[in-house]
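Quick start: read one record
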Amino acid sequence: MAKQKQESIPEAICASLLRVASALDEQGKVHQALAPYLKLIERYPNSKEASVATEKVLAIAEDMRERGQHHMAISVFDRLEAASQTLRVSENP
């Protein structure tokens, strides 16, 4: 029973991070949405929410690129890569 509770905590955190990020994104607060999206990708990379967050971050960066905000888009791509690097480092000690 205790193990089920422990396993459900990360699932709840993932869902909450995605909800917060999505709400901010829908409100047009894309810069604020990046933090929870990236935290989700970094801390829970194997979750289904992380793959959704990755798609959202890529869409935000692409939108920035299309608007001519190239430096911002590159910054977002760099942050996404850094979040992904955390996964690679933790998997290969």
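The mean pLDDT is 88.
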